[in-house]
Amino acid sequence: MGPAISLQDVRKVYDRVPVVEGLSFAIQPGEMFGLLGPNGAGKSTTIRMLIALTRPSQGLVEVAGFDVTRHPARVKANIGVVLQQTSVDTELTVWENMEFHGRMHHIPNPRRRKAISQWLEYVQLEDRRDSLVKTLSGGMKRRLQIARALLHDPSILFMDEPTVGLDPQTRLRLWEIVRDLNGNGKTILLTTHYMEEAAFLCDRIGIMDAGKFIESGTLAELRQKYGEGLIVKQTADRLTSELFPTLEAASQHLDSLPDRTGVMCRPSNLEDIFVELTGRRLD
C-alpha cells in the first residue's frame, strides 16, 4: 500500500511570487501528522492543494492514490475537511446540515439517515438534531463540522486549527474524538498553533517555514536531533534559550555558571525546537 498523502517537488506561485517551494513529504495510511509553521509559511496553500481547491504550479500531489490535478472528484470523495472557520449553515438545523452534505455526496437513503444518526451520536449531538445551528456553542459547531466531514466515510481527514477559540474542556473533548478517529484507522493531517496539541496528538510532525518543508519526525526524534535539555535565561525583559544534547548536559552547564540569577534548566519541548528552527514562536 502506498502513502495516503504524497507531495513530490511541489511548487505554487501566485503573481510570480512563490509561496510554496520544493515541497516533498509523505503521510502513511493511519498516521496522524501535524503540520506546523509560522503565519505565511505556506500551510494554508499546501492544504488547499491537498484538498483539490488549488492547482499546484509544479510537482505531483497525490491523495488516497489519486492525482489532485487529474482526479479532483475522486480525491474529494476520499477526504473529509474540518476548517478553522465555521463552515456549517447557521440558518439550518443540525440534521438539515448533515442531510444537505449527504445529498451532495450522493449517499442514498436509508444509508444516509443511518449515517447521520450514527455520526451525530458519535459527536454527542443526537439530542440537538432539530436545533438551529446558530443556537449551538462554538464547541458544538466544531463537533458538527467533524460529524459532517465524516458522513461519507472518508479515509483521510484534514483538520485546520480544529480547536482554535475553544475553552480547555471543549478542546480536550475534541482531542478525545480526534484520537479515537485515528485509532479507528483514519489518516489525519492536523494544522495547529497549539504546540501541546501537536505533541499530544501527532505520530509525526512536519515544520514549514517561508514556503519550504524544513524538518519532520516524531517528537522523540526531533528532541534527540536538536536537544533534550534547555537552559533559559531571563535578562531584564529579554528571554534567551539554548538547547543541549541531554538534560544532564544542560544541568551541568547550569552548575558551572558563576551567576545563576534568572537562569533555569528544563527538558526541551516541541515549541523550543520550533523556535530553534524558525526563529519564531507561534502566535
Automatic annotation (TrEMBL):
<dbReference type="GO" id="GO:0016887">
    <property type="term" value="F:ATP hydrolysis activity"/>
</dbReference>
<dbReference type="InterPro" id="IPR003593">
    <property type="entry name" value="AAA+_ATPase"/>
</dbReference>
<keyword id="KW-0472">Membrane</keyword>
<dbReference type="InterPro" id="IPR017871">
    <property type="entry name" value="ABC_transporter-like_CS"/>
</dbReference>
<dbReference type="InterPro" id="IPR003439">
    <property type="entry name" value="ABC_transporter-like_ATP-bd"/>
</dbReference>
<feature type="domain" description="ABC transporter">
    <location>
        <begin position="5"/>
        <end position="235"/>
    </location>
</feature>
<dbReference type="Pfam" id="PF00005">
    <property type="entry name" value="ABC_tran"/>
</dbReference>
<dbReference type="GO" id="GO:0005886">
    <property type="term" value="C:plasma membrane"/>
</dbReference>
<keyword id="KW-1278">Translocase</keyword>
<dbReference type="InterPro" id="IPR027417">
    <property type="entry name" value="P-loop_NTPase"/>
</dbReference>
<keyword id="KW-1003">Cell membrane</keyword>
<protein>
    <submittedName>
        <fullName>ABC-type multidrug transport system, ATPase component</fullName>
    </submittedName>
</protein>
<keyword id="KW-0813">Transport</keyword>
<dbReference type="GO" id="GO:0005524">
    <property type="term" value="F:ATP binding"/>
</dbReference>
<keyword id="KW-0547">Nucleotide-binding</keyword>
<comment type="similarity">
    <text>Belongs to the ABC transporter superfamily.</text>
</comment>
<dbReference type="InterPro" id="IPR050763">
    <property type="entry name" value="ABC_transporter_ATP-binding"/>
</dbReference>
<keyword id="KW-0067">ATP-binding</keyword>
